[in-house]
UniProtKB/TrEMBL annotation:
Gene3D superfamilies: Aspartate Aminotransferase, domain 1 (3.90.1150.10), Type I PLP-dependent aspartate aminotransferase-like (Major domain) (3.40.640.10). CDD domains: AAT_like (cd00609). This is Aminotransferase class I/classII large domain-containing protein. InterPro entries: Aminotransferase_I/II_large (IPR004839), Kynurenine-oxoglutarate_AT (IPR051326), PyrdxlP-dep_Trfase (IPR015424), PyrdxlP-dep_Trfase_major (IPR015421), PyrdxlP-dep_Trfase_small (IPR015422). Its cofactor is pyridoxal 5'-phosphate. The keyword Transferase applies. GO terms for molecular function: cysteine-S-conjugate beta-lyase activity; kynurenine-oxoglutarate transaminase activity; pyridoxal phosphate binding.
Length: 394
């Protein structure tokens, strides 16, 4: 628990909504939709998550993690995974605390750690050249175990893990997760596990949840996103799953910031999961269909980029794909005395001259490392076929 939470954990609304729900009184001050009936969807629901949604999430994650969960204390709904991340850093990080971030990383981690007064400590995934003639895969980007271990010390509060990783598409292997888990246990460090792309894994690969490794449940907060899970990013429904000893502090941040997420969106997501749970593992399941569809789009994009002279890195997961743009150096005019990375200049040139949008990889590195990784751009293939030309889909 961070110091900013001291003395701010009580909340009158939380207390009285709970009482009203327990005793089924008519709450005239604040109409709530605890029952999930249609006409109630315009009203407030439970602050920490609409009951039908936290219940179905608990049921699903019990299956995925192989352990019992209490929907009221082990699950909390957020406004997208973004708010879940923000709550985590505010809940646990104090001035002087260090948080390890694996590069390349989803950009907001760095700023959110800094906003919480913490110091981000970066450790890069290092690319290894693939065997002769083979295309590079996101699996060729690896953590150096000694380098990772050297980042842990007595100031380390947490490590952020994002598997499958945005922007690289890397799906961390069991061995890599065990390495991280062992260091977390050894140094008593929390793991903030951003798993928003958990269902987007290709080529029969398995997404392994670090919380299921020995010693990790008690120190991990799993973060997920309905936006990514159901390809409906505008809904902004996310969640945290973890032990009550951690989630209680996340609830304190939530009740003092957002307090409540849109009821109708939560109900819709709950219904989506109810259907998925019924179809779990069957061919009609969206979680089975979606990666199948996306894998085709991935393969098409890999072929097209390869034919165009860019060297794609085949992602094992997510709907992002990095491509090496070194071959295009002569197309983009040099800007003397500019410290803007080449990939950023290239991406701007490409959108202006070719109508094709992509994000420079350097945007996913800290300031000091940007220029070490500035010859890749990130494409998004989730809506390939819908948007053929132009249109930034991020
Ligand atoms: N984490 C990662 C790795 C993401 O890529 C995104 C969205 N791009 C988020 C979190 C935020 O998800 P949401 O839209 O549910 O807030």
């Amino acid at each position: 628990q961070s110091r900013r939470l001291e003395g701010v954990d009580k909340n009158i609304w939380v207390e009285f909504v709970k009482l009203a729900a327990t005793y089924s009184t008519v709450n005239l001050g604040q109409v709530t939709a605890l029952s999930g009936e249609n006409h109630m969807l315009h009203q407030y629901t439970r602050a920490f998550g609409h009951p039908p949604l936290v219940k179905i999430l608990a049921q699903l994650f019990e299956k995925l993690l192989g352990q019992e969960l209490d929907p009221m204390t082990n699950v909390m709904v957020t406004v997208g995974a973004y708010q879940a991340l923000f709550c985590c850093f505010q809940a646990f990080v104090d001035e002087g605390d260090e948080v390890i971030i694996i590069e390349p990383f989803f950009d907001c981690y760095e700023q959110m750690v800094t906003m919480a007064g913490g110091t981000p400590v970066f450790v890069p995934l290092r690319p290894k050249a693939p065997e002769n003639g083979k295309m590079m895969s996101s699996a060729d980007w690896k953590l150096d175990s000694a380098e990772l271990a050297s980042k842990f010390n007595e100031r380390t509060k947490a490590i952020v893990l994002n598997s499958p990783n945005n922007p690289l598409g890397k799906v961390f292997s069991r061995g890599e997760l065990e390495l991280i888990a062992d260091l977390c246990v050894k140094h008593d460090v929390l793991c903030i596990s951003d798993e928003v792309y958990e269902w987007l894994v290709y080529d029969g690969k398995e997404h392994i949840r670090i919380a299921s490794l020995p010693g990790m449940w008690d120190r991990t907060v799993i973060i997920g996103s309905a936006g990514k899970t159901f390809s409906a990013t505008g809904w902004k429904v996310g969640w945290t799953v973890g032990p009550n000893r951690l989630l209680q502090h996340i609830r304190t941040v939530h009740q003092n910031s957002v307090y409540h997420c849109a009821t109708a969106a939560q109900e819709a997501v709950a219904q989506g999961f109810q259907r998925e749970l019924m179809l779990y593992g069957k061919p009609d399941s969206y979680f089975v269909q979606l990666p199948k569809e996306l894998q085709k789009k991935r393969d098409w994009l890999v072929q097209s980029l390869d034919a165009a002279g860019m060297k794609p890195i085949i992602p094992e997961g997510t709907y992002f794909l990095l491509a090496d743009i070194s071959n295009f150096k002569s197309d983009v005019p040099d800007v003397p005395n500019s410290d803007e990375p080449y990939d950023s200049r290239f991406a701007k040139w490409m959108v202006k001259n070719k109508g094709l949008a992509a994000i420079p990889l350097s945007a996913f590195y800290c300031g000091a490392h940007k220029n070490n990784y500035s010859h890749f751009i990130r494409f998004c293939f989730v809506r390939l076929g819908v948007i053929i030309r132009g249109g930034l889909v991020v």
